[in-house]
Amino acid sequence: MRTECTEHMRLWEKLLPGTPPLVTKAYHLPSKVVLHVTGPQIPAGSRPSSLAREQLRNAYTSCLDAAKDAGLRSVVFCCISTGLFGYPAAEAADVALTSVQRWLEEPNETVSCIVFDVFTDHDERHYAELGPLIFSEPSTPV
């Protein structure tokens, strides 16, 4: 997978915040493909700018668009831009959930399962608290 990513970026473009995801084979992972996307990096102690929020929103929606275009039924997201990239976890969860909820408002006949895979208990609390507020039905899995 690393070789495929390197070759693609050598021939086409680097993965930067705001660029479309790179779609590769999944190789030995239990998946058809892997979507590689880069979110914004936030300097330590800083708040996300409006540009950073838009780049993070775009990371989620462009992955969903790529999944739809590829005919995928499900997508699993990690906490894009948190951790080493410094995006505050609560704000990142809000952007992630809101972006996906808005994307789901548009007609979509392929993607039927979206999973948020969190890193920490702290991340899980943010998604558990915000999910019911952002999605209209509290029983909707987030």
In words, what does this structure look like?
This protein is of the alpha+beta class and 142 residues long. The protein has a domain at 38-134: Leucine Aminopeptidase, subunit E, domain 1 (3-Layer(aba) Sandwich). 42% of the residues lie in helices and 11% in strands. It has four helices and four strands. The strands form two sheets. A two-stranded antiparallel ribbon has the order 1-2. The chain has a two-stranded parallel ribbon with strand order 3-4. It is globular, with a radius of gyration of 15 Å. The chain starts with a helix and ends in an 8-residue tail after the last helix. The model is unreliable at 138-142 (pLDDT under 50).
Question: What's the helix and strand layout?
Answer:
Elements: H1 2-11, E1 22-25, E2 33-36, H2 50-69, E3 74-77, H3 89-104, E4 113-116, H4 121-134
Parallel strand pairs: 3-4
Antiparallel strand pairs: 1-2
The global form is globular
Task: Using the CA coordinates, give the radius of gyration.
Answer: 15 Å
CATH architecture classification name of the domain at 38-134: 3-Layer(aba) Sandwich
Low-pLDDT windows of residues: 138-142
What descriptive keywords fit this protein?
single chain, alpha+beta, Leucine Aminopeptidase, subunit E, domain 1, two-stranded antiparallel ribbon, 4 helices, disordered C terminus
